[in-house]
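in:
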């Protein structure tokens, strides 16, 4: 019996030593080394936007198809700025993504929207889905920033004009993505696109951006947590409270809208949603003070007890990179290597537990910086003059 107790004691001691050091096996030794292998596979996938992998993504959620294109386009725009000697190669990827998306948009909004949005008019009779408008505007704006194309300049300007008009017509300065349904995710992305467009053509929508933030603080901030809600009606009634899969992206986009508000939202979200233990990091979808009982297709499942949510954890990469939170980025990458099963082959790197969208989000997270910094610097130079 004493031997059994001794063995159990030794097992507990071994476990206590081994478990806290488990992360060492999965911690990335060179984060920058991930970029070329992730980019290689996504570059190869551009010609297969209509292929079986994207067909599966569209089957799960057609919105994810558009989002994957946007994150890939942003990533390769940043790569073009980071690696000017390969600019033409990187811009070829962006051009292919934008061209295909403009072509698919002509099939009608249903191509990128979930079925519940089909056939119903928006509350704004002159409006279009801000989800589609904002994603394409940001893709075009990023491309034009790196190297303007004369034929796409009017397309960007026209789209920005529609976005601005639609936001202005909204009772709370927040436009719809679906009938009577607005998303903070889409509004912040659209406003970031407007900011880049302004830096390109010299227009100034700073007053609109300031009014949007003021209205958001009044209508779209959850009183319990101080965090932006995810979803709301045309009149501003909250449909879904704060969600990590919205907040991380919104905080990043808000860096081009109101840097102080962006930082505030990031720090609040980090306190409310991030878990860290033994070198691993993850993010939950909902704050404890504002929980949601039923997951939706965007949020995905949450692992109970530890409150790990794949959608929120995935987009936390974007925010960690945007706010230069190296500790969180390293912890998230360690968890990714542990749980998402990285696969390296002759096409590059992918994660078996993810999909084309999650791979695109990760590549953007690791490449972001140049575009946002240049736009912010350009505005400061204008103000100085």
């Amino acid at each position: 019996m004493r031997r059994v107790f001794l063995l159990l004691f030794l097992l507990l001691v071994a476990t206590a030593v081994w478990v806290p050091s488990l992360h060492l096996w999965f911690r990335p030794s060179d984060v920058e080394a991930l970029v070329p292998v992730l980019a290689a596979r996504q570059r190869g996938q551009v010609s297969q936007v209509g292929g079986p992998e994207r067909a599966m993504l569209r089957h799960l959620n057609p919105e994810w198809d558009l989002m994957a294109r946007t994150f890939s386009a942003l990533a390769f725009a940043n790569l073009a700025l980071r690696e000017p000697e390969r600019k033409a190669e990187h811009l070829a990827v962006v051009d292919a993504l934008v061209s295909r998306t403009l072509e698919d948009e002509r099939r009608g909004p249903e191509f990128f929207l979930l079925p519940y949005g089909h056939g119903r008019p928006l509350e704004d009779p002159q409006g279009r889905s801000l989800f589609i408008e904002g994603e394409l505007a940001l893709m075009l704006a990023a491309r034009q920033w790196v190297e303007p194309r004369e034929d796409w300049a009017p397309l960007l300007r026209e789209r920005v004009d529609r976005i601005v008009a639609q936001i202005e017509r909204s009772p709370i300065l927040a436009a719809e993505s679906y009938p009577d349904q607005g998303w903070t995710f889409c509004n912040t992305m659209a406003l970031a696109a407007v900011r880049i467009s302004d830096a390109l053509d010299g227009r100034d929508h700073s007053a609109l951006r300031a009014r949007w933030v003021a209205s958001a603080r009044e209508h779209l901030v959850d009183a319990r947590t101080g965090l932006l809600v995810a979803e709301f009606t045309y009149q501003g009634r909250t449909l879904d409270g704060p969600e990590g899969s919205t907040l991380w992206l919104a905080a990043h986009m808000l860096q081009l809208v109101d840097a102080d508000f962006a930082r505030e939202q990031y720090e609040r979200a980090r306190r409310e949603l991030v878990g860290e233990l033994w070198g691993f990091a993850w993010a939950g979808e909902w704050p404890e003070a504002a929980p949601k009982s039923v997951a939706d297709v965007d949020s995905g499942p949450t692992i109970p007890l530890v409150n790990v949510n794949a959608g929120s954890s995935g987009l936390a990469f974007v925010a960690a990179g945007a706010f230069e939170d190296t500790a969180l980025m390293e912890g998230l990458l360690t968890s990714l290597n542990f749980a998402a099963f990285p696969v390296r082959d002759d096409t590059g790197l992918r994660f078996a537990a993810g999909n084309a969208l999650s791979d695109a989000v990760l590549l953007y997270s690791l490449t972001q910086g140049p575009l946002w910094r240049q736009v912010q610097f350009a505005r400061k130079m204008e103000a100085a003059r």
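note: Residues 9-19 have pLDDT under 50 and may be disordered.
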